[in-house]
Amino acid sequence: MKILVLNSGSSSLKFQLFDMTTMHTLATGLVEQIGESQSVTRMKFLKNNTAHTITADQPVHDHRQAITTMITLLKENRCLSGLKSLAGIGHRVVHGGERFQQPALINEHVSKIIEDLTPLAPLHNPANLMGIRVAREKAPLVPQVAVFDTAFHQTLPAHAYTYGLPYELYEKNRVRRYGFHGTSHYYVAKQAALHLGKNIDELKIISLHLGNGASCTAILNGRSIDTSMGMTPLEGLVMGTRCGDIDAGILFYLARETGRSMQELDDLLNKESGLKGICGENDMRTIIKQAGAGDGRAELALSVFCYRIKKYIGSYLAALNGADVLIFTGGIGENSPLVRARSCQDMENIGIAIDSAKNRSASAGSGSAGTLSPQIMEIQSKASSMKILVIPTNEELEIATQTLQHIQPDG
Predict the structure, then answer these.
(1) pTM here?
(2) Domains of the chain, each with CATH number or no CATH
């Protein structure tokens, strides 16, 4: 039983094909620079239990051609006989607002709601919808499901999602905390429960998704009760190019003192801030190397990044009244022992202690083709009162799982 997962961006198309019967990834690929003179297409796939890679550099004019290219590659390499053979197609959609607390079987009504939510995610929802529409044209008889990044956080209580603004802005303009990375947080929380042999509804979990985008979530009995990202993905932790939490008055100050427009301020906070703003670099691997070589700005960026994580861990320990599990996931969370160590430094008195040797040896990678069972590593020391886990995230698998559950609820 095969499920195809699509993540359509403004100039890219990511895809992954799963065999949900054998629980294997059959293929994963990316078409990027869509609409530019030189597009790049890459696909990794399994053939005779061996991983193969294909790369092609040729113009891909639009998303329709990108999906056609994907279909051709999957068919030529015998990963798929055609879209008609799929059990379903799952689509990543960034913003579901308050309308979607669960995945949704896509029809014209659902597509219209996703379009209506564009003001909440102007860079993402239109691109997601573009992929949905082309896929429905190409495979009109295949059930297709929208899985929303925001859905997992729709369990936030009102005191967690309400901002200290006039309440009418929530009622009329939908201004509230929504949260993102929900698919990833939910996936690793479930994996943690399985690893510990417990039900997710009896655990208190703090989940850290750390990549170029980063967020922290407090999970109580399987439900998100608070999360660091807000109405947009700009709030919360310091990120690769996003500022995270700042004094809102800074915007007014900069507008007065520098004359920057609203768009310029938007670009400043989203594209020129965070790690990049502090040290000129947003790749954590490079920052760590530069800091180790004595670069003061790189060291400052690393310190700010880890300190902000530490503050959120502490605040969510308070919100949860303690925690059973602390999870590191995402590209940085899975692969940077230094970030993990510094984010948990000097927290022994509140039950968090990392074993240095275990932490150094724990380097994760979810892989792109093959078995779907994640390698989970415990890095806590004996002095730690909670488990500290490194878990490779797999948002695409979670989308595939939710898609299958939604089209076969009794299966």
Answers:
(1) 0.94
(2) 2-148 (3.30.420.40), 200-397 (3.30.420.40)
